[in-house]
Amino acid sequence: MGMELGIILAYALGLIALYIIVWVLATPLKFIGKIVVKAAIGVIILFITNFIGNFIGVSVTINPLTATIVGILGIPGVVLMVAINKL
């Protein structure tokens, strides 16, 4: 009977350890996933900005850095990128 309790405790500790390991490894992946999604949204916003800006002479270079900045900051990021490109 004592051996069965030891096995049950070992399984329980193993499952807890596995849960902690998966949680630690999954947390950075969620963060990276959010950044990638925001960068994709930034690319779309930059394409729209360049399309509309083409009529008034405004354009922003589309690269991973500008897409991420625009994706994270939103409209202020677009204004920032346009201002930097006009300098």
From TrEMBL:
InterPro entries: BofA (IPR010001)
The protein, known as: Pro-sigmaK processing inhibitor BofA
Pfam families with a match to the protein in the record: BofA
Domain of life from the UniProt record: Bacteria
Residues spanning the membrane: 6-26, 35-56, 62-84
Keywords in alphabetical order: Membrane, Transmembrane, Transmembrane helix
Keyword Membrane attached: yes
Keyword DNA damage: no
